[in-house]
Amino acid sequence: MSFFSKWFKKDKTDQTETSGETRGTGSHRADAPTGNRRIAQSEEEEIRKDWTRVPEQRPGTKRLVRHILLRSPELGLQQFAQSLREREAEVRGGIHEGRIIVHYREMTVTADFVPNPLPNREAEQNCKYNTMWPNSEAEIEGYAAHMRVTAINVEDGTEGHKFLTKVVAALIGNMPNALAVYSAPMIVSRSAYLASADMLKDGLLPINLWVFVGLYGGKQGGSSYTHGMQDFGGDELELLNTQRSAAETFELMFSVAAYSIERGIRFQGGENIAFKEGQSLTLNRSAGAALEGMTMKIEGF
């Protein structure tokens, strides 16, 4: 039995104002239908007997993916097990045939090494959208390999992202050759990811690792959109043709996203929100401008 196998088998005043109809989902795991719950319980029993088993994706659950970009193909996994247990003591799993497999409650995360960059310079192409890391393309240029980290059977977006974040942080914390964590179109440097992931130790949510805020301009003003809100059961956000600065726009979009996720609120459209005295913003649901499908428009900014 490997070190990893033995280790993991141990058992161990809000100022925001809102009005209008909202629907809270809470930050706890949503109850699954009875049939799915029985399946999950059966899978849990099997996994407790054999942690190397990766369950099938259950209907109605989400899959979350992150890519760790590596300067060189060396993997520093010697301290991974201990690092992960320091972040989440209840995990079960290990390394099986070169693949990391860890389970937490009814979720599973796998990490697979890929000895090549992502195809078609995908990560490099998306760097231009990441205003929070303006020199990201130069910093990741020439990366040699990556790890694909996947969380499956995620019923609650917040809990799933917390688990995935802990696994990724435990991996890159012991990989000096890790350059960044990528999830299209977001790219975050290793140091920034670790600093934000540590917020979980204080009971805070690193939403900046989970939701991307994009900015773009036009003749009528600046506009913005989010990517990642759908992982939490809500619509993506858009703000169109504002005369406010890019910094103000980014701050507002992030504030609305964080407010929704932290409180488990799914906006329905028609709500009024305010983050400052005298501010009055309206949320209206309509067809996306920069995004496909329906989006929640923030109006009045």
Automatic annotation (TrEMBL):
Residues 1-46 are annotated as: Disordered. It comes from the Bacteria. Residues 225-299 form the DUF4261 domain. It holds the Pfam family DUF4261. InterPro entries: DUF4261. Residues 16-27 have a biased composition (Low complexity). This is DUF4261 domain-containing protein. It comes from Saccharibacillus kuerlensis.
